[in-house]
Amino acid sequence: MSSDVFRTEHELSDLPWTDLPEQRSAEPLDETFVFQFAEVDERLGPDQRWTTWLDVERGCRGPEPRPDWVVTEQAAIDTEFGILKTGKEADVFLLERAVDAIGDSPARSSLLAAKRYRTEEHRSFHRSTAYVEGRRTRNSRDSRAMAKKSSHGRSVAAGQWAYAEWDALNRLWTAGVPVPYPVQVDGTELLMEFIDDGEGGAAPRLAQVRPSKDVLELYFEQIRCGMRELARAGLAHGDLSPYNVLAQPERIVMIDLPQVLDIVGNPKGMEFLLRDCHNMATWFTNRGLEVDEQELFADLLSMVF
């Protein structure tokens, strides 16, 4: 064995490559190779979770171009603030998705509406059968499970409503229909744009407001245009009423869209479309703006055929 393997401390100090760095004139390190690390507190509260944005499949995230307010950072945290609305088939919760400032990236946050569908045994959406006529389940295993009403089948049924609304929101938002921007869908949970009242609170339903005549006319024109865009796509809301429309100071937004149906493909498509016209025409007429439901119905049919 070579004697070079063993050297005393005195001998090592005599070697030229042991000169201390401070004894040399070193050039400053390029900042490109300097990494800044910040400690992150990973403890979450009982009403918090890490963002699920990248946990879902690619097709389960909102359509592009996405609004600037959508938070996509994986370091974001979802914080639940409570329930906004209870419904026949789902409950809607208020959720904030926020990320702290990291390096040169500023802190960002946005409020979202988290709609969570119940399984069949916990919901009372009694018109389900009429709405889903003409729809197909994605695979035969799911169809059999739904027919047997097994736990998997009930979960599939709930998920079907979530994905039906997700598909409708994507299609309608892209077409310019006034609906909330769909952020993502994950199982039975649908995250979408939170529609506020302009002052930080939740926007009221159309049925709760008493607009002036000018605003009433503005609202109706937006409703009519939205229904026309739906009809142009061959669709009807299916459950449109003043309770499924949110009213901002100068803008209306259609909500609750899991039952959107094909006007021609569904045997009751025309019936549902006419009912949508009746509900909206009645409300506007009662508020002082004369709207003929038959004229509205004929106008929408001209977009279909």
TrEMBL record:
Q: State the Gene Ontology terms under molecular function.
A: kinase activity
Q: How far does the signal peptide extend, from start to end residue?
A: none
What is this protein's name? non-specific serine/threonine protein kinase
Residues annotated as domain RIO kinase: 33-302
Q: Which reaction does it catalyse?
A: L-threonyl-[protein] + ATP = O-phospho-L-threonyl-[protein] + ADP + H(+); L-seryl-[protein] + ATP = O-phospho-L-seryl-[protein] + ADP + H(+)
Family, similarity comment: Belongs to the protein kinase superfamily. RIO-type Ser/Thr kinase family.
Q: Which domain of life does the UniProt lineage start with? A: Bacteria
- Quote the InterPro entries the UniProt record gives: Kinase-like_dom_sf, RIO-type_Ser/Thr_kinase, RIO_dom, RIO_kinase
Keywords, ordered alphabetically: ATP-binding, Kinase, Magnesium, Metal-binding, Nucleotide-binding, Serine/threonine-protein kinase, Transferase
Q: Supply the EC number(s).
A: 2.7.11.1
